[in-house]
Amino acid sequence: MPEILQKTFLGNTIAAYGIALLNMGVGVAIAHFLQHILLRRLQRWTQRTTSPLDDQLIRIIKRPILWLLYLGFCYLSLQNLTLYPTVNQLLTVVGVISATLLLLQLASSVAEYSLRIYGHLHRHQPNIRQSLNALIPAVRVVLWAVGIIFILDNLGFDISAVVTGLGIGGVAIALASQGILQDLFSYFSILLDRPFEIGDFIIVGDMAGTVDQIGIKTTRLQSLDGEQLILANTDLTASRIQNFQRMAQRRIAFNLGVAYETNNAQLKQIPQIIRTAIEEIPQVSFDRAHFSGFGDFSLNYEVVYRVHTSDYMVYRDAQQTMNLAIKEQFDQAGIEFAYPTQVLYVNQSPLATD
């Protein structure tokens, strides 16, 4: 029996092949044992949570990690064998490609899982699903591009020449589709930086509307008049945007004028009248009211108040209620609002007599 084990076949003894197979079997058993321990710990962790995403994580990592362990133990088992250069090179190529593909699958799945977790945590935001749907394919493309370059480099290809060729082709494509690429990059800039979201009311230059859709090339707004405004993403990222949706409160300043015939007692009474009119309105707080100066035909007051909501209709209703209350109080106090007037002084000389 020992003589049979010492016989040589393809450069290795049968005993060496037996030891390699035994190591592979032990490696497979260890891989299953490690998988069992890992999965059991993960299952204990997922039982403490109610989210289905935890169970999805186990399904994601289970298969790639198991096969990576298989490859690792097989590689270690074959190290004691003397193989022909061609066979050794072939096994190396297969091992590198297999390991890289498994790692790419694992990395892509974990990255997608992380983005899904982020989307689950921010699910109250209406455009988060759209952002994820755009980012996930981009992440996959980047990971697979890196993986392919890694495989080519390990297979002996001149990566610098390949990258140079891709660079020249990329420059040509970029020049041919410069506008589209600019809008595409602007689209990702909007999704990542989030200067506005779907449902926000924004003003861009002389255009205003509610964000209805954020596309790869254009963003669509629904204007107050009802028509749809279509803006290029590049124009949006290069413009100053006013986003009223994120405004916690409004600060309103306005002026009113009273006639010059108003006496001092009435002038002193006006700030209190305005304050009382403002403080009776819900969601509105008084800031200040001052006699600010002398106009051409009026005594001017500057009034500032705050509306504790971003709702435009609440602000307009508050302003209307305030105006009616001030007008009523001024009528009761005998205070007249100023209006443009012009006084002419005529110097009338006596008529000449004969």
Description:
- With 354 residues, the chain is an alpha+beta fold.
- Among the domains are: 187-243, SH3 type barrels (Roll); 250-333, Alpha-Beta Plaits, CATH 3.30.70.100.
- Helix content is 58%, strand content 16%.
- The strands form 3 sheets. Strands 6-5-4-3-7 form a 5-stranded antiparallel beta sheet. A 3-stranded antiparallel beta sheet has the order 8-10-9.
- Strand 5 (218-222) and strand 6 form a beta hairpin.
- It starts with a helix and ends in a 21-residue tail after the last helix.
Fold blueprint:
Elements: H1 2-5, E1 8-9, E2 12-13, H2 14-47, H3 53-78, H4 85-121, H5 128-154, H6 159-176, H7 178-193, E3 201-204, E4 207-214, E5 218-222, E6 228-232, H8 233-237, E7 241-243, E8 250-258, H9 264-279, E9 284-294, E10 299-307, H10 312-333
Helix pairs in contact: 2-3, 3-4, 4-5, 9-10
Q: Summarize the biggest pleated sheet.
A: 5 strands, antiparallel
Radius of gyration: 39 Å
Number of strands: 10
Order of helices and strands: HEEHHHHHHEEEEHEEHEEH
CATH topology annotation of the domain at 250-333: Alpha-Beta Plaits
Give the overall average pLDDT. Answer: 76
What spatial form do the alpha-carbon principal axes imply? elongated
Reported CATH architecture of the domain at 250-333: 2-Layer Sandwich
